Amino acid sequence: MHRLAALAAVLAVLLMGVACAQSSGPYVYAVDSINPQLPSTDRAVNLETPQASIETFLAAAQREDWVRAAQALELSYLPEAEQERLGPVLAEQLHLVIERAILLDWATLPDRPDARAVRTSGNDPVAGEERRSLRLALVTLPDRPVAIRLARLQIEGEDPVWVFPRQTTENIPDLYAHFAPGPIERALPSALRQQAFWTLSWWEVIALPLLLLAAFGLAALAYWAMSKAAAGVGEVALIPWIVRAVRTPAALLVFAAAFSVAQAVAFTFSNTVNSVIDPITTAAVVLAAAALVVSIMDAVIERVSNTEGSDPTQPDAEADRAYYTTLSAVRRFFLVLMLLVGTAFVLLQSNLDQTLGLSLLGSAGAIGLVLAFAAREALGNIMASLQIAFAKTARIGDAVIFEGELAYVEKIGFTHVRLRTWDDRRLMAPVLNFVGETFENWTKTDSSMSKYVLLTLDHRANVEALRHEWSRFVEGEEEVIELDEAKVQVVGHSRDGMEVRFLFKAPDPSTAWDIHCRGREAMLHAASRLDEGTEDRPAFLPREREVMVAKTA
C-alpha cells in the first residue's frame, strides 16, 4: 500500500509539472518588464487575447488616446526615458500603417489567450496548438518585406499579454515613412481628411474619380497622337502598321501607368482602396504590356504576309502553309507563356492573400467551382490549339472536309478554327473538334487528289463507248494530271441500274471540284446522245426513270 501511495504521489507531481509547463512554458516569451515608463491610463487595457489587443488598440486610436494605444506596443528596446515620449508617437504611426497597409481578417484573429487555431482544418499544422506569435500581415517596402506581428509576453508572476513585439515596433518609422500622407494630402483641409463612409476619407471619395478621369484623358490623348503619327507616314512602311496595331494596348498602358504614378507620388490611399486598385492596376499593366508585344508580332506577321502576297491555299504553297502555321503556333505559345508569367506576377505583386478579394472568393465555394470549370475548358481549348499548330494536323491554307463541306483553314485560334468554304462562307469550328474527332485533310502531304464522277446507268449501257467519251473529255482538260490514271469502272449495280465511276486526278482540291462538275455534265450529255435512236440500240439512261418523268409530264 505504501508503494502504491508513493507511486501515485510521484505521478501527481509529474502531471502538475506538465500542466505548469504547458501553461507557461514554450508558449510565451518571458520578459523582465513591459513599458515600465509609459504613463498609466484611466481606461481599461485588455491585452489578454490577440483579438482583444487589436480591439483595444483600434478603440484607443479612434479616440486619439495614443497613450492607451501605446500599451499594446513593446517598447523595451527604447531607453526608459524615451518610452513616455515616443510611445504615443509610434502608436499613432502604427495606426496609420494598419489603415493603409493591412486588411485585418477578424474571422481568423483568435480570441483566446492561447491563440489556438480552432477554425482551421485538421490538416493545418497549427490546428489546436497554442501559439505565442501571430503574423498579421507582410508589408512590402521598397527595400525589404516587413512582418507585422503580435507576440505573447509574460512577466514572471503576472498574466501573459499580447502586444506588438519589438521586431514590429522597431520597423514602425520605416513603415510610416512609406505610407505617410503625401504633400497634397497634408495640404488638404482637415474636414476632407475626415472619414466619409466605410473606411474612406472625404478626399479619397473626391480624388478617385478625378484620377480616373485624368488617366483616361491621358490614354485618349496617347491614342489620338499615335493615330495621327500613323496617318502621317506612307502606307508602304512597316511602322504605321505597328503603330496602328499597338494603339489600344499602348493607351491602356498609359492609363494604368498614369494612375499608378499619381497614386505613388501624390496620394497615399487607404488599404481598403489599395486592396481593390492595386491588383487591377497591376493586372492592367501586365495585360497592356502583353497585348503590346502580341500586337507588334501580329502587325509584323500581317505586314510580311501582305508583302509577300502568297496564297497558302494554292497547290504549290506547301512551304507557305508550314511557315504561316509555325508563326501562328509560336505566337500562341508566346501568348500563353506571357499569360502564365503575367498571372504569377500579378499574384505575387498584389499580395492577394491580404486583400478583400481573395477572402470573398475563398468564402464563395460555388464561385470557385465555376471558375475552376471555366479554367478547365479554357485550358483544354488552349492545349488543343497548340497541339494542332505544332503537330500540324491542320495547317493554315489546308483544304479539309468539315461536316461534309470542303473548306480552307484561314486561322487557328485558341478556341475556334476559322474555315473558308468554296462559296466564301466562314465556318467557326471548335478547336476540340479537330483534336477529338476525325476529319479529312486533303493537302496534308500532297495537294493533288483523285476524284470521280458516279453515274447510275441502264444495265444495257455500252461501257466501252462511255470509256471512249471519257478519254476524249480528260484529254481535252489541261488541268487533269496523270492521264493514265483516268479510268471508267463499273463499281456496283442494283435493280435501278449499274453504277459507273469515271476517275481522274487533279492538281488540287479546288480544281478537282471544277473538273468533277464539268465531267458529270459531259458524261450525262454523252449518255443522253448515245441513248437517242431506235429501240434496238443499246440503252444508257435507266428506262424506268424516263417513264416516270413522262407520266409526271
TrEMBL record:
Protease as UniProt keyword: no
Pfam families: MS_channel_2nd
MF GO annotations: mechanosensitive monoatomic ion channel activity
Ranges of residues in domain Mechanosensitive ion channel MscS: 379-444
Domain of life (superkingdom): Bacteria
Gene Ontology, cellular component aspect: membrane
Protein name (record): Mechanosensitive ion channel family protein
Organism: Parvularcula maris
Taxonomic lineage of the native organism: Bacteria, Pseudomonadati, Pseudomonadota, Alphaproteobacteria, Parvularculales
